[in-house]
Amino acid sequence: MRLNTRAFATASAAVSSAVVFAVTVLFLVGPGDPARLAPLSGLLFGYAPTLAGAFVGALWAWVYGFLVGGALAFLYNLVLVPPPPLVDE
Question: For the whole model, what pTM was predicted?
C-alpha cells in the first residue's frame, strides 16, 4: 500500500503540534513543574514554558512534524512499496 506523502506529512504535523501545545498547557495548569519543559527550547526556537511559548512551540512542531512525516512517507514508499508491473504493449 502506497502512502500519500503530503497527507502523511500533514497528519504528522498536526499530531506533533497538538502534542507540544497540549503538554505545555497541561504543565502550566496542572501540578507539573513547567520548568521541566525548558529543554524543548533547544529544539523549538523561541519556545518557553508559557502560554505564548505553547503557540510558538506548536508552530515549530508543525514544521518539524511535516518535514519528518514527509520524509518517512517518502522513504516508506521508496523502500517498502514494490514498483508497479511493467505492461508490454
Answer: 0.84
